[in-house]
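2024-03-11 09:14:02 INFO worker-7 job=invfold-0412 stage=load source=structure_tokens
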């Protein structure tokens, strides 16, 4: 019985160490410290990680990613037909993700923290998903998914600032079948936008190397 507990603890430690290593490699890759070439040579990769940890004056910083939690909460509220709260968390998710793109670009290009914070604070969601991406030399964001994201953001703002289309809401309540169809279409659009955004980040930030990083960690 005691032996079983020890094995269980060792297993947990092993999982935790692999998670930390994976996040460390991903972070260094996103910041441009680790290159595509480094990922092809495991020994060179580990040596580079150790060297970076030793030479880093700022030490190791751990960033908690809340995006999965935000999505889970948003989806739960949508299932419960608490649509306003669902829009709130979907909108926060979409803003977190695009802010992450901006943050990574600024880190890669050695843009100071003060300027990075100002870019994020001074541009609205519409700008972040359009001309700002162009300035940061990212590909154009799909216009259909961009419109979906902005629609969610508008509904979030209407809820927060206590504004809504009363006539439209009344019509939907009076026709439950049409409301269900409308909600199903809306949810499908939101989930398609999430999938597109996920793939957009994988392609343009990770250069589709995230699976390769996971394989490296598993072999370690």
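2024-03-11 09:14:09 INFO worker-7 stage=emit residues=220
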């Amino acid at each position: 019985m005691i032996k079983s507990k020890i094995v269980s603890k060792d297993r947990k430690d092993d999982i935790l160490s692999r998670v930390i290593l994976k996040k460390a490699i991903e972070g260094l890759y996103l910041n441009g410290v680790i290159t595509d070439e480094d990922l092809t040579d495991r020994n060179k990769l580990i040596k580079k990680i150790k060297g970076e940890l030793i030479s880093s004056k700022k030490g190791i910083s751990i960033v908690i990613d809340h995006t999965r939690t935000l999505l889970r909460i948003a989806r739960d509220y949508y299932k419960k037909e608490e649509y306003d709260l669902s829009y709130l968390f979907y909108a926060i998710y979409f803003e977190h993700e695009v802010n992450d793109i901006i943050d990574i670009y600024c880190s890669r290009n050695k843009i100071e923290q003060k300027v990075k914070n100002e870019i994020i604070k001074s541009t609205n969601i519409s700008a972040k998903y359009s001309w700002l991406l162009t300035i940061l030399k990212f590909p154009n964001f799909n216009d259909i998914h961009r419109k979906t994201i902005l629609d969610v953001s508008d509904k979030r703002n209407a809820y927060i600032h206590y504004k809504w289309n009363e006539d439209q809401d009344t019509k939907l309540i009076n026709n439950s079948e049409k409301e269900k169809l409308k909600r199903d279409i809306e949810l499908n659009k939101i989930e398609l936008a999430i999938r597109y955004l996920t793939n957009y980040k994988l392609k343009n930030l990770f250069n589709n190397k995230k699976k390769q990083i996971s394989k490296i960690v598993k072999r370690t």
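2024-03-11 09:14:09 INFO worker-7 stage=report msg="The two ends are 29 Å apart (CA to CA)."
2024-03-11 09:14:10 INFO worker-7 job finished
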